[in-house]
Design goal:
The protein is mostly helical and 332 residues long. The chain has 14 helices and five strands. Strand 4, helix 9 and strand 5 form a beta-alpha-beta unit. Helix 3 packs across helix 13 and helix 10 runs antiparallel to helix 13. The structure holds tryptophan (TRP). The site of tryptophan has 14 residues, from strand 1 and helix 8.
């Protein structure tokens, strides 16, 4: 039997290059070999957007379009709407008893996100416990592998702990998953911040027009001390070079540019021109495919409906085993 991949994204906005290098790229490579499920995690998106249901609803389609545009193939990958899989909600309830509040509060991913969103003690309970519902996402499908951005690894670790507790206390029916991070893993924002994020306003989206892309590359953070072309420049922490490393297929040329830049005599304008070319070569076909799929949203929604149906067959089987293991199978 094929091994299973489960991964997902919150539908809170369009997907960006950070999603691509952190996770989408691996999914596309692996969808041929693995039984792949991709969750559009609307329930998780609501954990910090309870008052914005319209935003979540709208972005279900946008995220689905991003997937299709970038090369996720619905014949190979099953795309699923999370809220329509009630088995996940049920599993979450059972797992709540296997995790302590202290453990949740120590989760570095949750801690970082709470700080970023300024929650403090007023954190919604649903948000604080999202690693538990994410453990339910993963285990409902008995996933072996979870391709995610590096920042999500503590959530996968939390999932593994829940699986070990469950299997020890009840019966070994759950599968312990492994996280899988792409070679690049994390992409900085165009402003030089450590992470590209929808809410940080520093992202290049897969759906950006050429004009938007050009503007973003023009404003990209480089080496603030590199003022004159003749000055030696720093390539470390220089976002333009970070992106060239991630996207330029011509590694030799990047190496050459780097040593020129370090020695002095290579201006930001020239390097940015190359980066714009490289990124547009990458994004243009994605943009065009996206526009094609966007012409028929009903067809895309139908694909999601079919995917969700298929997913429920899988999760219903897991829940049957879970209830039996927990001695909750009263009327069989
Ligand atoms: N938490 C993930 C993110 O913010 C999204 C997500 C939801 C997910 N459910 C998942 C990722 C299950 C991997 C597996 O990007």
């Amino acid at each position: 039997m094929k091994k299973v991949i489960l991964t997902g994204d919150r539908p809170t906005g369009h997907l960006h290059l950070g999603h691509y290098v952190g996770s989408l790229k691996k999914r596309i490579e692996l969808q041929k070999e693995y039984d792949t499920y991709i969750l559009i995690a609307d329930v998780q998106a609501l954990t910090d957007n309870a008052e914005n249901p319209e935003k979540i609803r709208k972005n279900i389609l946008e995220v689905a379009l991003d997937y299709l545009a970038v090369g996720i193939d619905p014949k190979q990958s099953t795309i699923v709407i999370q809220s329509l899989v009630p088995e996940i909600a049920e599993l979450t309830i059972y797992y709540l008893n296997l995790v302590t509040l202290a453990r949740l509060q120590r989760n570095p991913t949750v801690k970082d996100e709470m700080k970023q969103k300024g929650f403090g003690a007023n954190v919604p309970v649903g948000f604080l416990m999202y690693p538990i519902s994410q453990a339910a996402d993963i285990t409902a499908f008995k996933a072996d592998l979870v391709p995610v951005g590096e920042d999500q690894l503590p959530v996968i670790e939390q999932t593994a702990e829940i699986v070990r507790s469950f299997n020890r206390i009840y019966k070994p029916v759950l599968v312990e998953p492994k996280g899988l991070v792409s070679d690049v893993g994390r992409l900085s924002g165009i402003d030089g911040q450590a992470k590209m994020g929808k809410s940080l306003g520093n992202a290049i989206y897969l759906s950006d027009s050429y004009e938007d892309l050009a503007k973003k590359v023009r404003n990209m953070y480089t080496d603030p001390k590199h003022i004159r072309v003749a000055d030696p420049g720093n390539v470390k922490g220089n976002i333009v070079f970070e992106y060239l490393d991630a996207f330029d297929p011509d590694l030799e040329e990047v190496k050459k540019l780097k040593s020129q830049y370090k020695a002095g005599g290579l201006g930001d304008v020239v390097v940015k021109k190359r980066l714009l070319e490289v990124l547009d070569n990458f994004l243009k076909p994605i943009r065009e495919r996206r526009e094609e799929f966007a012409k028929d949203p009903a067809e895309v929604m139908k694909m999601l409906e079919k995917g969700t149906e298929k997913a429920r067959e899988k999760t219903a089987q897991t829940l049957k085993e879970v209830r039996e293991a927990m001695k909750l199978d009263y009327f069989v």
